[in-house]
Specification:
There is one protein chain. This protein has 482 residues and is of the alpha+beta class. It folds into two domains: 9-100, Beta Barrel (OB fold (Dihydrolipoamide Acetyltransferase, E2P)); 128-173 and 208-469, BirA Bifunctional Protein, domain 2 (2-Layer Sandwich), CATH 3.30.930. It has 15 helices and 16 strands. The strands form three sheets. It has an eight-stranded mixed β-sheet with strand order 6-10-11-16-15-14-13-12. Helix 5 crosses helix 8 and helix 7 (257-278) crosses helix 9 (307-316). The chain is globular. The two termini are 35 Å apart. The structure holds 4-amino-1,4-dioxobutan-2-aminium adenosine-5'-monophosphate and magnesium ion (MG). 4-amino-1,4-dioxobutan-2-aminium adenosine-5'-monophosphate (4AD) binds next to strand 11, strand 15, strand 16 and helix 15.
Length: 482
């Protein structure tokens, strides 16, 4: 085979009829009769396959036998107008090489519809399906768009540590990091684990959030954002929770809660617009996939708006902004509450909202994304700024249809005495967070920030319904394969 450079299938398809090209990729399907073989080839550059047309008498029957679903091949040939329907160009193959065969008896992915559950078991091969190819391309586009959005606004990207000594959210859901010999744990005189003998001379864990360190950077650089992995050992086996997920956390000096909401709403709309403009083929595929799936569902379980319309709706409409207190009134008087349809009934002010309540507000009551603000202090983290009423804090959560909470954030408590009082009230160890408290002593400033759960965003943009299907290798309770 000649040493001609490989052309990506995306480029071949967009250029149209052209000279000779070399393509490489994985075989999706092959149909063959005595005179001709049709091979659908995909290299991940686009959802579309390139049709290769091969003459068995020139390519060789024996070689074509190895061209089966899942095999990796390289092919050279002329790009010509297609005779068949379904594609505008195809390749007339002159030479073909099998780079890696795939035993058809053993290859797990067949050219048919597999269940999402089965594909999770073979997560190492699922990028070779149309659905996962589309999801990974969209995931990439969203990572790029997030950096572009913040870069264009002059935010600096900060890498915050993955190993920390703190539990920023105070929920006690951290994964321990240790190099101690678990068979032989050193104890101190009091009989407790002697972390002085551990790698860092102290107790450490995987981070649950980069926020606290992000705040330190914002108190010098004004506008920063983090985009890193976060780890939570919460044992919730839901379609919205991962033990390892990625979070985007901007932190902005001189910004109050309203500025924070404005930034988050602008960012979410920017990301959805970016996907609509730059991922049209993949979104069209996922949109049709959802319409096909909905046909097999009961009427009440079908999507009211198709994926593309849901995305456009978010871009075109202002988010509803209400306080927690207003939300409680709506929920208390709602039908599912009165008819005892909620699993957790709302009887008064102060209750934490469950995902059923969030989804009622967004999907049934307002039918729009909702920003809830000013939550009771007792159900939120220690670092949120106390409001003048002494009962609520300057918190905000953004709730999305089909998802529930997608963003959580707040204005931060920048007043030293008030922060200390909250830490004492909530038993947050002040000695471990001495550096965080110091920023309130040395040049403190009003500031705000939020966290966007990256996989929840990808759920929304792709219309997928299980968070395990929007991250390449999901980590959930009992599952860390691959
Ligand atoms: O609301 P959370 O816990 O907020 C924080 O961690 C703050 N430190 C953020 C900040 O103000 N800088 O988490 C933020 C978002 C949630 O709204 C949700 O989208 C996502 O992270 N999230 C999860 N995503 C997947 N799996 C989990 N277990 C998640 N927990 C939170
Ligand atoms: Mg939250």
């Amino acid at each position: 085979m000649s040493k001609q450079k490989r052309t990506k299938i995306k480029e071949v398809l967009s250029v149209g009829v052209s000279d000779k090209a070399v393509v490489k990729g994985w075989v999706r399907t092959k149909r063959q009769n005595k005179n001709v073989a049709f091979i659908a080839l995909n290299d991940g550059s686009t959802i579309h396959n390139l049709q290769l047309v091969a003459d068995p008498s020139t390519i060789g029957e024996d070689l074509l036998k190895l061209v089966t679903t899942g095999a990796c091949i390289s092919a050279e040939g002329q790009i010509v107008a297609s005779q068949g329907s379904g594609q505008s160009v195809e390749m007339n193959v002159s030479t073909l090489e099998v780079l890696g065969s795939a035993d058809p008896e053993k290859y797990p992915l067949q050219p048919k519809k597999h269940s999402m559950e089965f594909l999770r078991e073979i997560a190492y091969l699922r990028p070779r399906t149309n659905t996962f190819g589309a999801i990974y391309r969209i995931r990439h586009a969203m990572i790029f768009a997030i950096h572009k959005f913040f870069n264009d606004k002059g935010f600096l990207n900060i890498h915050t540590p993955i190993i920390t000594g703190s539990d920023a959210e105070g929920a006690g859901e951290t994964f321990r990091v240790t190099s101690l010999d678990l068979e032989n744990i050193p104890k101190n005189e009091a009989g407790e684990i002697d972390f002085k003998k551990d790698f860092f001379d102290k107790e450490t864990n995987l981070t649950v959030s980069g926020q606290l360190e992000g705040e330190l950077a914002a108190m010098a650089l004004s506008e920063i954002y983090t985009f890193g992995p976060t780890f939570r050992a919460e044992n919730s086996n839901t379609t919205r929770h991962l033990a390892e997920f990625w979070m985007i956390e901007p932190e902005v000096a001189f910004a109050d809660l309203e500025d924070n909401m404005d930034l988050a709403e602008e960012m979410l709309k920017y990301l959805v617009s970016y996907a609509l403009e730059n991922c049209a083929d993949d979104l069209a595929f996922l949109n049709q996939r959802e319409i096909d799936e909905d046909k097999n569902k009961k009427a009440e379980d079908r999507n009211e708006l198709c994926l593309l319309d849901r995305l456009k709706f978010v871009v075109d409409n202002d988010f509803v902004r209400i306080t927690y207190t207003e939300a409680i009134d709506i929920l208390r008087n709602s039908k599912p509450n009165k008819k005892k349809k909620f699993q957790y009934l709302i009887d008064g002010w102060g209750a934490d909202l469950q995902s059923e309540h969030e989804r009622f507000l967004v999907e049934k009551h307002f039918k729009k994304p909702v920003i809830l603000s000013d939550y009771p202090k007792d159900i939120k983290s220690f670092y949120m700024r106390m409001n003048d009423d002494g009962k609520t804090v300057a918190a905000m959560d953004i709730l999305f249809p089909g998802i529930g909470e997608i963003v959580g954030g707040s204005q931060r408590e920048e007043r030293y005495e008030k922060l200390v009082a909250r830490m004492d009230e909530m038993n947050v160890p002040k000695d471990e967070l001495w550096w965080y408290l110091d920023t309130r002593k040395f040049g403190t400033a009003p500031h705000s920030g939020y966290g966007l759960g990256f996989e929840r965003m990808i759920l929304f943009v792709t219309g997928m319904t299980n968070i395990r299907d929007v991250i390449p290798f999901p980590r959930t309770p009992g599952n860390a394969e691959f």
